[in-house]
Amino acid sequence: MIIVLRPDATQEDLDHLVKKLKDVGLQAHISKGVERTLVGAIGDEAILRAMPLEAFPGVESVLPILKPFKLASRDFRRENSIIKVGSSEIGGNHIAVIAGPCAVENKTLMVEIAKGVKAGGANFVRGGAFKPRTSPYAFQGLEEEGLKYLALAREHTGLPVVTEVMDPRDIQLIAEYADVLQIGARNMQNFRLLKDVGMCKKPILLKRGISATIKEWLMSAEYIMAGGNHQVILCERGIRTYETETRNTLDLSAIPVLKKMTHLPVVVDPSHAVGKRDLVAPMAKAAVAAGADGLLIEVHSNPEEALCDGEQSLTPDAFKKLMDELRPIAKAVGREI
């Protein structure tokens, strides 16, 4: 249920309502908008129906949420959510750009790439310290050593760090170094991992599963939010179809669809979607035109020698050129980059 409070409702009214909901075993999630405060009451529907919620002081109306995803729904929060990370944000008028190598390979290279993407206009630096690979014999990442190199890159550039978490046992370690934790496509429905990052205080970038529907994707976001962490960023990275000319099929229609269904910000990863360097720029431009709140782009100083995904990585110079080309497109849709 969505409980809408009157504009003149007091903090005491809100506290009283939340206490009563928790006393009967329900979860209460508060969303304070510009004009109204909403309380999402989640739990046993029989208990909810039995409570005379409209009789509580300060309550204006009670509305059922019909969608299976409650907290991620636009019904729960009408305004777009803006995820703030230090002085940067994702979901506002400024289109955020997350850039860096697929994997952290060594200290010198990581710092060099971070400086390059900052010079090109990136707002965040990314790199994988723990790598989910299809083959068990492929490079699996430097783990904590890689996290230390990412932290060093942040020291040199001031850019917040985005990196992937694959195992619930690593959440605390990664959270010590990273500013945003990424859930990869293969783990989108790893529900134990989703529950555990739901108890983490760091923003979570949730990638769409390889063959996931939008509803399934939003249900995964709901797992995180139900744990108390509402700082969720959705990332479209292409889905598996019958087409083989690209690595995946980038579903750009997901952007406007999600904008209707959810208040969460939407980022697009054209690098993993297409898998080919020459296709990254046109798809990045299309994503901005379609309304994406951010981009995730793989950048490497020497793609020919990259330990993974070199074929889809831009050089720092190519990244800067793309950023210059994106600015007029962003302006045309009322955004900035």
Question: Can you characterise this structure?
Answer:
It is a single chain. The chain has 337 residues and is of the alpha/beta class. The protein has 2 domains: 2-63, Alpha-Beta Plaits; 83-332, TIM Barrel, CATH 3.20.20.70. Helix content is 35%, strand content 18%. The chain has helices at residues 11-23, 45-50, 107-120, 144-157, 171-177, 191-197, 214-226, 254-261, 270-274, 277-290, 316-332; strands at 2-5, 27-32, 37-42, 59-63, 83-85, 88-90, 96-100, 124-126, 161-164, 180-183, 204-207, 232-236, 266-268, 294-298. Strands 7-8-9-10-11-12-13-14 form an 8-stranded parallel β-barrel, surrounded by 6 helices. The chain is elongated and about 65 Å long.
Features:
337 residues; alpha/beta; Alpha-Beta Plaits; TIM Barrel; 2 domains; 8-stranded parallel β-barrel; 4-stranded antiparallel β-sheet; 14 strands
Outline, from the CA principal axes? elongated
Instruction: Give the low-pLDDT segments.
Output: none
The succession of helices and strands, N to C, reads EHEEHEEEEHEHEHEHEHEHEHHEH
Tally of contiguous helical segments: 11
CATH topology of the largest domain: TIM Barrel
CATH homologous superfamily placement of the largest domain: Aldolase class I
- The number of strands is 14
At CATH level 2, the architecture of the largest domain is Alpha-Beta Barrel
Q: Report the span from N to C terminus.
A: 37 Å
Largest sheet: 8 strands, parallel, barrel
Q: What structural category characterises the helix and strand content? A: alpha/beta
Strand content: 15-25%
